[in-house]
What we know:
- The chain is globular, with a radius of gyration of 20 Å.
- Helix 6 (175-185) crosses helix 12 and helix 8 (247-267) runs antiparallel to helix 9 (304-311).
- The chain has one domain (2-408): Anthranilate synthase, CATH 3.60.120.10.
- A hairpin with a 4-residue loop joins strand 21 (361-365) and strand 22.
- Helix content is 30%, strand content 32%.
- By secondary structure, the chain is an alpha+beta fold.
Amino acid sequence: MLNWVHRFNIFCLLDNNSYNFQPNDYEYLLGAGCKAFISDATTSFDSVDTFLQSKQWTFGHIAYDLGYSFQHINSEKDNNISFPQFFFFQPQIVLFIKGSQLHIECSNADEIYNEVMSSAEDIDAAFLKVSIQQKLTKSEYLQKIKALQAHIQRGDCYEINFCQEFFAEDVSLHPVAVFHALNVVSANPFAALYKIDNRFLICASPERFLHKTGNKLLSQPMKGTAKRVIDNETADGQAFKDLQRSAKDRAENVMVVDMVRNDLSVVCQEGTVQAQELFEVYSFPAVHQMVSAITGLLKEDVPFSEIIRATFPMGSMTGAPKKRVMQLIDEYEEGSRGIFSGTLGYISPAGDFDFNVVIRSIMYNATKRYLSYQVGSGITIYSNPQKEWEECLLKGEGIKKVLTSASTFP
Length: 410
């Protein structure tokens, strides 16, 4: 399917990598080609509601930077990848795997099936190793963390998610090959390969932003990370238990839970918002993560745009209180986040949807030959700046491994 889809100028492929991370609607979901689209280049975000009235499959993203307008914050930073602030498209072809069956929705399903099956041969997918640079030196990073902790000490905020960018210039690569390689190294339940013309998102996200079934909303913020010890089961189990008991990580997690509860309460029926899970630890290829789950029942006739305005950007990628920390993020981070720490997903013809958090991701602009990935962590008054630096490197480990090895993948 990867070999077949790369011919399209616009597509969105979502892969849960066989995780039983509930709710699990599709094993594999792909929208390819474009019948119609909507973006910030031509209209306002509220126009998405009109676009969705056709009740067709819709795929797309919302960039973190759109959240500044939601919070009435003026940010003028440029982003070299140049994804739109939002983009949604109705695909010409939808393919999905549910259970063990492949479903194809389009006017010429038999023809598409034959094309997909015949494209299974290997493609020339070699890419040379990439020379990674970083926007911040370690000393600059540590200084910024201390400055942010001074803001916390003064009472400006309680927690702030601070991110840094790693980048490479004059890059030529095969995004399908890189996605395959990243999925081998770091298979996660919200993986995605997304293309809008010359811009690519190669995503290995473990985190869900927001899921809707009927009138039920679910958010599953992650906050709290521990490195896995893959070659030592006993030590790995201890790392799992240490994260479960970590007072610092629980403090970070509960602050995000409170923010999500407040966000959902804006659009949900009174008394229905609740924490379904608190401080659960899940294991992924490189890390253990602390995850909580918050649910709520939507009020009647709440449009998609209103749900997003109430909940985006997600609390796990901002901190608390949201508006103040977003101002600090804009002040202290070196560049724009763009699509990073935004969201990518789909909306079904029935109006249900599932959107991830764009983390553990490579962003690539093939025209500019510019590649970027960002990593971050939640900063509190109790944070150790050195350990936060190490956590950032850990989160980018899988990406760096893929990009700095000259490789060929089928």
